[in-house]
Description:
This protein is α+β, with helices and mostly antiparallel strands. The longest helix has 10 residues, at 6-15. The chain contains 3 helices and 5 strands. A hairpin with a 5-residue loop joins β4 and β5.
Amino acid sequence: MIPFPEGHVAVLRALQPVWDSERFIVIGAAAIACHLDFRWRETIDLDLSVAAHVDDYARDLESLGWLRASGSPQRWLVPDGSVIVVEI
């Protein structure tokens, strides 16, 4: 197993007070990289699948200081500059 980058770990920890671990999972290349050597891939985003009501999830993320990216409702900008993609 290859560990998550520190920025991804910080994002996952930030989400824990908002949603318990049964309400979101890591998907995409970041999830695959936990099991395979994906160091050649230069993705900088963290893809998540979230079990949250569509009316609540944006408010939950905004409470963390996250901003929705312009023109892409599922992309969020985290205060540290990371990009998070949330699929609900």
